[in-house]
Amino acid sequence: MKATRTTRKRRTEAGIALLIAIFILLLIGVVAIALIVSSGTESALAGNYRSSTNVYYAAAAGLEEVRARLRSNNPNSFNNAPNFLPPAGTPLGVCTPVYVINPVGGESITPWNSGSTYADSEFGQEFAGICGAIPSPSPTTQSIWQSNPLNTLPFPGPLYKWVRINGVSELSLNLDAFPYDTSVDPTLLYYDGINSRFNDAATGYQVLEVTALAVLPNGSQKLLQYLVAPSPVILPPFLATLTMVGKPDNSVAFSPPTAAGNPGYDITGTDQDTVGTCGPGAPVHAVEVFNNVDQGNIINGGNGGTGMPVSLRSKYVGIANPGPDVSIMPTVPTSLQSPAQLEALIQTIIQDADVAIPSGPVTYPLPTINGSALSSATSAMNSSNPMTIVVNGNLDLTNWHNTGYGLLLVRGNLNYDPDASWDGIVLVVGQGTVTGSLGGVGEFDGAFLMANTLDASGNILSPDFGITTMLYGPNMGGAGLRYSSCWIAAAQPTSGYRILSFHEISQ
């Protein structure tokens, strides 16, 4: 009886192993399917992220190319693209955009054409009610990726299609900019870069809007946008027409023309010259030095100079009138407190200069650059297009019967021909010497600063400045130096286009 009952019990358990095996296989299958689905989802997410990242950086590359090419000292500057941007001194309008295009494989890119593949529909959305249709055709230029040698590379460049450049106004941005007057008007925006103020065309720089569209072969698109404006290099305040830097006693020497040799020569701190909408302001000192010994050297002679002719001292006027108006600087700006600090400022000017003559490393003894070489290197310079020019040597202006505009930095000796004129800022910083003996009728309008910061081998002096000298011959011609705050403002150097805002535009 017991054996029979045991046999029946074992028969009821038959097949349980098969069920367990089937259940385990089913579980494994479910897990496998889940893993496959999860892997596919992750792959899709990774692909989407990769596409999003690639198209983002393609659009950013277009923005950065344009930002770099807006600078006049860029080898691929838009100044080299005929009829692309307005002439220097003429602003770019809100409703007159220009485009940098980047076609691939011979495709046609016409953003102004609403029926084209890469139409600029964003323009109509952003400027609805302000501008009409985009001018057709709008001015265009090719991306640098379409020029040799980049167009011969075995791989494509950034896949942006176009970059639009246009001016902006309070109205187009729907923003009340400084000065805040609660009105939103169509006046073009300008940015001074120092006080974060807008709408001052006389002392500021035009704000530009830069918009880039990138499209990948898989259809991914991205629109990015900058607001940019030039950012000025912060120079020390010019509180005198002529500033001769030198902290120790007996650090300047001054010999102007004599009364008999040139009775018309003077240095005046009376502000003059209207440039555009900029008008003259308050007077400044005629000459400024750092101590009373050098003040005496300027007026009475000393340290190798002859000083101001007694009969002409009344012509050296500014805040003090009658003259001679030779002031001691009350507070020395940080950049003028030591040769090293001034050289640090000078290096920022050099790095962002429009022209450097000669180009390449500075060699000692310094070479001498003549007026012919200066003219050749500054052919684009005019009153509407002031430039920052660095002369890495001595500059001899003999027989240079021209007028320069902008900032002139001379690292060696400046030999002045009074037939030449300069409107803007002249810095003779390095060897810090000025000479001249010829006749002429030219003048400097703006501000003039001198400092001896380097020894004869180009090493920075420490801790004090060396001797700064302006030694003219007794019969040298010229009208002298005249202060002009307007030309100082027009000649301010810039350190590239600063990004004022950045955002991604939803599509």
Summarize this entry quickly.
22% of the residues lie in helices and 25% in strands. By secondary structure, it is α/β, with parallel strands linked by helices. α5 links the parallel β11 and β12.
Provide an overview of this structure:
With 507 residues, the chain is an alpha/beta fold. The protein is built from 8 helices and 24 strands. The strands form 4 sheets. Strands 8, 10, 11, 12, 13, 15, 17, 19, 21 and 23 form a 10-stranded parallel β-sheet that branches. The chain has a 6-stranded mixed β-sheet with strand order 2-1-3-6-7-24. α5 links the parallel β11 and β12.
Strands, helices and their partners?
Blueprint: H1 2-12, H2 16-69, E1 98-101, H3 121-126, E2 140-142, E3 160-167, H4 170-173, E4 190-191, E5 205-206, E6 208-215, E7 221-232, E8 240-244, E9 252-255, E10 266-268, E11 285-289, H5 292-300, E12 326-328, H6 339-351, E13 355-357, E14 368-370, H7 371-377, E15 387-391, E16 394-396, E17 403-410, E18 413-415, E19 421-430, E20 433-436, E21 443-452, E22 468-472, E23 480-483, H8 485-490, E24 494-505
Parallel strand pairs: 1-2, 8-11, 8-21, 9-22, 10-23, 11-12, 13-15, 14-16, 15-17, 16-18, 17-19, 18-20, 19-21, 20-22, 21-23
Antiparallel strand pairs: 1-3, 3-6, 4-5, 6-7, 7-24
What attributes characterize this protein structure?
alpha/beta, six-stranded mixed sheet, about 500 residues
